[in-house]
């Protein structure tokens, strides 16, 4: 199982690929604080028996280095011993907003994670 995450300040969007061909959005993780979110992501990875974790990283923009540092720090908090891959998440939220009408309940975040996962699968 391949799992992708789109890390945000309020939610962590999640998507899965059971076969390495198709990407499906799943329920996002609500983020109260960094440690709780890391524990919830770790549990989701274990529950799905994830072998690969694809993490969206923003490329370009003035805060690229700071965002990369924060995301990599969050990933270091995870209890996950599988392969970690980073994928450019540029414009994934914008693409996701074009795909869905209902942007509540974190659907946008998980569709963005699905787009990140689709990019990874195409490589």
Automatic annotation (TrEMBL):
InterPro entries tied to this protein: RNaseH-like_sf, YqgF, YqgF/RNaseH-like_dom, YqgF/RNaseH-like_dom_sf
Keyword Metal-binding set for record: no
Cited Pfam families: RuvX
Ranges for domain YqgF/RNase H-like: 1-96
Claim: Hydrolase is one of the keywords in the record: yes
SMART domains, sorted: YqgFc
Protein name as annotated: Holliday junction resolvase RuvX
Organism superkingdom: Bacteria
Alphabetized UniProt keyword annotations: Cytoplasm, Hydrolase, Nuclease, Ribosome biogenesis
Entry-linked SUPFAM superfamilies: Ribonuclease H-like
Organism, as annotated: Campylobacter vicugnae
């Amino acid at each position: 199982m391949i799992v992708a995450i789109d890390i945000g300040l309020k939610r962590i969007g999640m998507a899965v690929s059971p076969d390495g061909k198709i990407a499906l959005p799943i329920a996002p993780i609500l983020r109260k604080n960094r440690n709780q979110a890391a524990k919830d992501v770790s549990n989701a990875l274990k529950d799905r028996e994830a072998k690969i974790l694809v993490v969206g990283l923003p490329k370009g923009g003035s805060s690229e280095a700071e965002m990369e540092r924060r995301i990599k720090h969050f990933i270091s908090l995870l209890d996950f011993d599988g392969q970690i891959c980073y994928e450019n998440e540029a414009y994934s939220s914008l693409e996701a907003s074009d795909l869905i009408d209902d942007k509540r309940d974190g659907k946008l975040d998980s569709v963005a994670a699905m787009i990140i996962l689709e990019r990874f699968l195409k490589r």
